[in-house]
Structures are given as C-alpha cells and as structure tokens.
Amino acid sequence: MKRCVYLFAVLLTVAHVAGAADLRRFDLPDEAGALHYYASRPVGERSVQAALVVIHGHPRDASRSFAAGLQAARMAGRLADTLVVAPLYQVEDARHCSSPGEPSAQPGDARWTCGSWLAGEPSLGTHPISAFAALDALVVELVRQYPGLRSVTLAGFSAGAQMLQHSVAFAAEPPVGVGLRYVIADPGSWLYFDPVRPVAQGSGFVMELPAQACDGYNAWKYGTDALPAWLPADAGQARMRYAAARVDYLEGGLDNSAGQGAFYPVLDKSCAAMLQGPFRLQRGLGFLAYEQAVLKVQRRMLVVPGCGHRVECVLPSAEGRSLLFD
C-alpha cells in the first residue's frame, strides 16, 4: 500500500516538475542539428559537482524520466550538488513514439526515427550524427556549462537502457578530470560480445551456444557480428571497452512475466531476443551471469522488489538510489 501511494505521488509530481524544468537545446557537432534536454539547475552553478543524465524510453517520455531522476536525487539528499538532466531524442514522425506534453521537433533539430535512436543509429539529414555520439556531445556540453562538474552518471530505463547499454562499448572518452559511469535499468535486450547465451540451470545459468540458433542471433544489435560501419570500434575493441567501463544494473523484481505491470506486449520477442531469456528480469540476470563467466568482470545488479516496468518506481527506490548516487 505504501508503495502504491508513493507511486501515485510521484506521478502527480511529474507534470509539475516537467513544467518547472528548464528545457534547453544545444548545437551538436558538425552541423548535425540541435538536441533538446531538461535540466534542473541554472547554467554555471559552481555547486554542481555531479550530473545524473536519464535516458528516456521508447515513448520518448523525457519529462517523466527527468521527474524520476529528480525524485531519486531528492530522496538521496543530493539536490544540492547534483544536476539532473534528461535528453529528448526528436523524431521525424512521432505518431508511434510520443508522450503527452513533450515538445515536437523544431526546424534545425537533429531527428531520428522511432526505432533508430534506441539502436544508436545516425540521425536523418545531410549531416548525420549517431545517437551515441549525440550523448557523448551532451556530456561535453554539461562539463562546459558547469565548471565544478567532476562525475557524470548516465542512467537509462527500458529502451533508454537498451540504447545506453549498447553505447558503452562505443562511447567517447569523457573530458579530462570527469568520471563517467553507467546504470542500466530494465532493458528489453542486451548486447553480447560472444556467441554463447545463458541457459537457465537450477538456480543459475550456464553459457552455451544455442542448440537451435536463428540466423543473425549474434549480429548487431544482439551481438557484435556484422557491426555497422558507423560504429567507431570493431568487435574486439568493443568487448574490451565494455569490460573496462564502470557499469551497474537495476531490474524491477516484477518485470518477470506477461502481466500488466511488465508491459509485456512491447517486449522484443524476436528469436534473437528470446535466446536471452523470456522476460526482462531473466534477461538481466542471464547477462550478469554471462559477464561473470565469460567477460570475467564482477558488477552489481540490484533487483527492486515490488517494481514492475516503471521508471518512477525503479530509479527512486532504495536500490536505485544506492547505484545512481554511488
């Protein structure tokens, strides 16, 4: 009951916070257009030492993602020194990926399609920029605007988490003196760096080549075969970069079924995705097991009890705050 009341209060806060937030735009490199983002603190505030950048999901609900990040910062007691930011990837046709209250694309904006931004792909137009590179540029812009900024946490939820998890292996180095880390929350599918996949066995997983693998199951964006030419690294480099990055994971404890709270109808059910597990929670646990067994890295994955597939439940939770504000 307490969690339901809390969720209701957060939902009521979203419209108020989004309306009060500062919606900005900045010019991306190489005449690629402008990118919009919500921000919680005035430009130049020297008290800002950390930034939390929250990547929205498929409906491009940037204000909702911003509100969840702001609520997490408030509950963690970090509003005084933390800038909360939520970029908005604009699309050419928003009929199938829009959220009420979000601004439409304006002349001069960088634009993607509903599916291309979450795959990190280049924007449309004569001066394209990948969604990954646009995120790199946002980090550089924030460091330029806030002279005291020393750490940036990039957090993604759902489709935003999928995009962010894929970007880790291809991200640019952050500005000198700035630490960069990632929190991946409830992605629908994962980027693997080897052809094995986790197979549930008892209370854990074993790594095996799929017995009945579908064609392309290890190709981009599920694996590193056939990487597109616009990516700035090959498969071997991507594997090493991902293993070396600072990454933590969050999963909703109820995001493990076809029930209403898991938003199962929008879950990727392609053959390549289903080889990663039946639901988001199982896919996350399987990827963690893969990392430990194959990449030989130890990372944290916290499961949030009582949370389905909702950003306003997962990010501000005690588990979410412990990773977002490490």
TrEMBL record:
Residues 1-20 form the signal peptide. The keyword Membrane does not apply. InterPro entries: AB_hydrolase_fold (IPR029058). Keywords: Signal. It comes from the Bacteria. This is Alpha/beta hydrolase. It comes from Pseudomonas bharatica CSV86.
